[in-house]
Design a protein that fits this description.
The complex is a heterotrimer.
Chain A: E1 26-29, E2 38-44, E3 47-58, E4 71-78, H1 95-108, E5 120-130, H2 135-149, E6 159-166, E7 169-172, H3 176-181, E8 184-190, E9 195-201, E10 205-206, H4 207-249, H5 252-259
Parallel strand pairs in A: 4-5
Antiparallel strand pairs in A: 1-2, 2-3, 3-5, 6-7, 6-8, 8-9
Helix pairs in contact in A: 1-2
Chain B: H1 8-19, E1 35-39, E2 45-50, E3 53-64, E4 75-82, H2 97-112, E5 122-124, E6 128-140, H3 145-159, E7 161-162, E8 164-168, E9 172-176, E10 184-185, E11 193-200, H4 206-213, E12 228-231, H5 235-239, E13 243-250, E14 254-266, H6 268-300
Parallel strand pairs in B: 4-6
Antiparallel strand pairs in B: 1-2, 2-3, 3-6, 5-6, 7-10, 8-9, 11-12, 11-13, 13-14
Chain C: H1 19-23, E1 42-43, E2 48-51, E3 56-57, E4 61-64, E5 67-70, E6 74-79, E7 82-87, E8 99-108, H2 112-117, H3 119-124, E9 128-132, E10 139-142, H4 158-162, H5 164-167, E11 173-181, E12 187-190, E13 197-198, E14 202-206, E15 219-222, E16 226-230, E17 235-240, H6 255-258, H7 268-286, H8 293-306, H9 316-327
Parallel strand pairs in C: 3-7, 10-12
Antiparallel strand pairs in C: 1-6, 2-5, 4-5, 6-7, 8-9, 8-11, 9-10, 11-12, 11-13, 14-17, 15-16, 16-17
Helix pairs in contact in C: 7-8, 8-9
Chain lengths: 260, 305, 336
């Protein structure tokens, strides 16, 4: 597929003014939904995803309970207003939505320490609010932060990034304009081991190019991890500060006991 | 009701064999099961087997009106059917998750990767195009159904020939029956082959496995602590896999689909090792398929007297 | 190759944060280090805490390649050689003896025919209620763990089983104590004390469970005729004060009153007081301030002094003033 749009100009800039390896601005909001056990709204540039996590809680469907671990249930919705090109309403049976949900479930099943919660259920609700490329990437990152916020034990963060190749030039974090024209790969890695939990590609790409992207995405993982970690730590600190205020008020001796 | 997971002794036996670098059917880690093809009388009718897994693929074409937004492109649809006849795991009636996953993967491998030249399926712009319908029936599932289905599908597409057509005047289309004019093969850009790997956690004491497996049967970059990667998992291997990796490659070392959703996390090196193995196997499959399809075509040729 | 990743100057940019929170090196505890002397140490999943050879792993951690690694975001706590990480937002983790407030989600009565036909099976599957108590599984309240009409210590009869719904039905709120655990980690509750039982005459407020600390008593009475029950699972019941002498005595156990579904008459002043207390608790919880009887009392006095409407407490500036008033009393005993 060739395009009338210049993906990478001679000065080395992309259509939105970024360099090849530059990521879009990331924002994380942990206060998105108060009713959930944990939630996160994550934006990568114009792509925005809201994830709410409920649980571990009593399983709603008794037939699906597992006697030795918690079951994870993921439901994804893509808002009809989320994209400019395709404004149709996607029902529950939509293939793309189901696949997004199945991918997120499979990605987090080995990462969440489900064996700690036998017979429980963890519900993850993914809402894609705006799409501009990298929907899977944003959904995975948002789910990670939401699970951490819910206090669900995880082996590690899962950091996802999209990479693509334009005329032998690899680039990261594609917009939908670029996704339409370039072969692209979504890679989710775990920063502690550097191992990959998810690799997903649907367009044709030469093996050597693929290797290059894989390496590049491996290097981008820690950058996203750093951002997520900073947000999580800031939230933890904020919560802790509030509790510290209360402690000052209450009996110091009791506070000491709690502190240990 | 889903059948219960493999019994504990089966599981134990499998993993202890794996610790000794042995597979249940005696294959090497990177050895696939034997594959074979048989062609039906009709063009585009192929039965493919991979070990005990058997899949029937049938391609047919009919003329339809194209979609208004794409007047120059033919239509392709892939239908999958997993009946309880293939394996006790499948229920009759309702579409199972496996069926959706299989259809989705085949769709990605053959449709989204632009295997078939859709514009070559156009007869009369905006009026008449070919609609290719690929039907996949699983006859027996003993693991590796996706690999077998994609091989069957690739073979069927290569085997299939559509009737020759001629446009006369403004919008009159004449279809020449195969008896009068030799049918035309499909215009394929490339042929992707799907190759599946199953991953298992590294052996608890690596020495034994590494000593035996270090020779022929390990993926390059697989060190002592690296997870074990098996090519073409069968039956129990499939069900006990801790992670699955599906790769679809063309013989030109191009990846069409990479699908590794969750499961055991892999180091990038291990993944690339698997990709190299798969690339080799795709080339072998291509050479083999080429010979088989040509043989059948020669046999089908009718002398014109 | 140098990869110039962007570091956008956004709100989430790491450089904004305090030195020991974000950019600081990973905290790594060495054996023998005086760890308690430091401030609370924050960690998050996947971060190494210490060597697994010198320390034992506790909740919120796992062991990976000879290191204790955090699996939740929270603060590191150490008791001798045991290292745990406590998450600041999580579901309630029950312990035996905890006072909890719950809601009945299910009443399980097996059909009478089955009970008569197979006397044995009745013993295997006792009659019980399922209770949502904000934990990872619903709690179980056995019929044998509740007080029944006609004396505290009497045998359970079949007729009791048949009228289980007249004691507690779906949607009822109750206060109970954690009695024991089942093998799969589900908790079993009991209400075999006159303090426990069905709740009425008030409203429920739900807060993160970590904000409720273990106190001498979780039942407290505020001076304005409001009773407060602080459930350790984060559910708080605020109700009209019940006079001690009105409470049912040991002998005169009045099932009608204990299992009644009818609210008493509540006057407007009490209703306002209940609303005020519940809004105070909501404000405290939104600022992550631990909720104790003392702090609620102080906040209540502050609110009464200001003579503001109960609903005004939820306004941003009033809430901030309230937090400031109740938390800046005692700067000297800073703990964190």
């Amino acid at each position: 597929m060739s395009s009338r749009i210049e993906i990478l100009n001679e000065g080395g800039f992309r259509s939105d003014g970024r360099r090849q390896y530059e990521l879009r601005e990331m924002t994380f909001d942990s206060t998105a939904q108060a009713g959930a056990d944990g939630s996160a709204r994550v934006a990568h540039g114009l792509t925005e995803v809201l994830v709410s996590v409920f649980g571990p809680r009593e399983a709603r469907v008794r037939a699906q309970t597992l006697h030795d671990r918690a079951s994870i249930h993921v439901e994804a919705t893509i808002a009809p207003f989320s994209s400019t090109s395709d404004r149709r309403r996607r029902g529950r049976g939509d293939k793309r939505t189901l696949e997004l949900a199945a991918t997120i479930k499979a990605t987090f099943e080995p990462v969440v320490q489900t064996s700690l919660y036998p017979r429980s259920q963890i519900d993850i609700f993914v809402h894609v609010l705006q799409q501009d490329g990298g929907v899977l990437q944003a959904s995975i990152n948002a789910t990670t932060v939401a699970l951490v916020n819910a206090g669900v034990p995880l082996a590690d963060y899962v950091c996802a990034v999209t990479g693509g190749v334009h005329a032998a030039a690899p680039m990261l974090d594609l917009t939908s304009l670029e996704e339409n024209d370039l072969p692209h790969v979504t890679v989710a890695s775990m920063p502690r081991s550097g191992h990959l939990t998810l690799v997903s590609m649907e367009t044709r790409l030469h093996v050597d190019r693929f290797e290059e992207i894989l390496r590049l995405a491996g290097e981008a993982g820690p950058v996203i991890h750093k951002e997520m970690r900073a947000v999580v730590r800031q939230r933890t600190k904020d919560l802790l500060d509030g509790m510290g205020k209360g402690l000052r008020e209450s009996n110091p001796a009791e506070a000491m006991i709690e502190d240990e | 009701m889903r059948p219960p997971s493999p019994s504990i002794p089966e599981k134990d036996f499998f993993f202890s064999a794996l610790d000794q670098a042995l597979r249940l059917d005696g294959r090497d880690f990177l050895e696939a099961r034997p594959h074979s093809l048989s062609f039906g009388a009709e063009l585009g009718h192929v039965e493919c087997s991979l070990g005990k897994t058997r899949v029937l693929a049938q391609v047919d074409a009919k003329m339809v009106r194209p979609e208004p937004q794409r007047p120059f492109e033919g239509l392709i649809s892939i239908h999958c059917e997993l009946s309880p006849m293939a394996s006790t795991e499948y229920e009759p009636g309702r579409q199972s998750d496996e069926e959706i996953a299989l259809a989705r993967m085949l769709d990605k491998i053959f449709r989204r990767s632009d295997t078939i030249d859709r514009e070559a399926l156009c007869i009369l712009a905006g009026e008449r195009v070919w609609h290719l319908r690929i039907a996949i029936h699983a006859l027996a599932d003993a693991g590796g159904l996706l690999d077998c289905a994609s091989l069957a599908c690739a073979a069927a597409l290569r085997h299939f020939r559509r009737p020759d057509v001629e446009v006369v005047g403004a919008n009159e289309v004449i279809v020449h029956p195969p008896a009068l004019r030799a049918p035309v093969p499909l215009a394929l850009h490339h042929t992707p082959y799907c190759i599946t790997f199953a991953c298992y956690r590294a052996a608890p004491e690596p020495s034994a496995a590494a000593a035996k497996g270090a020779g022929a049967g390990t993926v390059a970059g697989q060190t002592e602590t690296a997870p074990r990667v098996l090519l073409d998992p069968a039956g129990l291997e499939h069900r006990l896999a801790q992670g699955m990796l599906h790769l679809a490659l063309t013989p030109q070392r191009e990846l069409a689909v990479v699908h590794k959703a969750g499961g055991l996390p892999l180091a990038p090196g291990v993944l690339m090792g698997a990709v190299q193995v798969a690339a080799r196997r795709a080339r072998e499959l291509e050479a083999w398929l080429d010979v088989r399809v040509r043989e059948d075509w020669v046999r089908k040729k009718v002398e014109v007297r | 190759m140098i990869i110039p990743f962007s570091s956008p100057p956004t709100l989430s940019s790491a450089s904004r944060f305090g030195e020991d929170v974000s950019e600081g090196e990973d905290f790594y505890m060495n054996d023998g280090e005086d760890f308690e002397a430091e401030r609370a140490t924050i960690t998050s999943p996947g971060e190494s805490i210490t060597s697994a050879r010198a320390f034992m792993r506790g909740h919120g951690t796992y062991v990976d390649s000879d290191e204790v690694v955090a699996s939740v975001a929270g603060i590191i706590e150490r008791v001798n050689k045991l290292v745990t990480v406590r998450a600041l937002r999580t579901r309630y983790n029950p312990e035996v003896g905890d006072l909890v407030i719950g809601r009945i989600t299910e009443v399980r009565i097996v059909a009478l025919a089955c009970a008569i036909e197979n006397n044995e099976r009745r013993k295997v599957q006792p009659r019980r209620w399922k209770v949502d108590a904000n934990a990872r599984q619903d709690a179980v309240l056995m019929l044998s763990s509740v007080n029944l009409p006609g004396g505290v210590q009497r045998r359970k009869l079949e007729s009791d089983e048949l009228q289980m719904r007249s004691f507690f039905e779906e949607g009822d709120l109750l206060v109970a104590e954690v009695q024991a655990f089942f093998a799969d980690g589900a908790m079993s509750l009991h209400t075999r004390s006159l303090k426990y039982g069905k709740l009425r005459n008030g409203q429920l407020v739900s807060v993160p469970p970590i904000l409720i600390r273990r106190l001498k008593s979780h039942f407290c009475s505020l001076p304005s005729g409001v009773d407060l029950i602080l459930g350790l699972n984060g559910y708080i019941w605020i109700s009209k004060h019940v006079q001690d002498n009105e409470k049912e005595g040991e002998e005169g156990f009045d099932a009608e009153a204990v299992y009644s579904n009818q609210n008493d008459d509540i006057d407007d002043a009490t209703r306002t007081a209940i609303a005020r207390v519940s809004n105070i608790i909501r404000v405290l919880a939104s600022r992550s301030v631990p909720i104790t009887d003392a702090i609620v009392l102080e906040a209540y006095e502050w609110a009464v002094e200001r003579d503001s409407d109960a609903k005004d407490l939820l306004l941003g500036d009033v809430a901030d003033a309230l937090i400031a008033a109740v938390t800046t009393k005692d700067e000297l005993t800073e703990q964190w």
